[in-house]
Amino acid sequence: MIRIGIPRALLYYQYYPMWKTFFEELGAEVVVSPLTTQAILAKGSSRVVADTCLPVKAFLGHVLALVERCDWIFIPAIRSVSKNIYNCSKFLGLPDMTRAVVPESPPILDIDIDINKGKRKLYQAIYQLGRHFTWNPFKVRRASLAAWQTYLNYRELMSSQGLTPLQAIERISGTPETESEVPSSQPTSTQTNYRSSRSAEDTKRRAQKAEPGLSGNIALIGHQYLLYDEYINHRLIHRLEQAGSKVLTPEMLTTEELQSAIATLVGRAYWTYEEEVVGAGGHYLQSGADGVIGIMAFGCGPDSLMMDTVRRQAARLRATPFMSLALEEHTAEAGVVTRLEAFIDMIYRMKRRRVEVCV
Ligand code: SF4
Question: Is the CB of 297 under 6 A from ligand 1?
Answer without folding.
Answer: yes
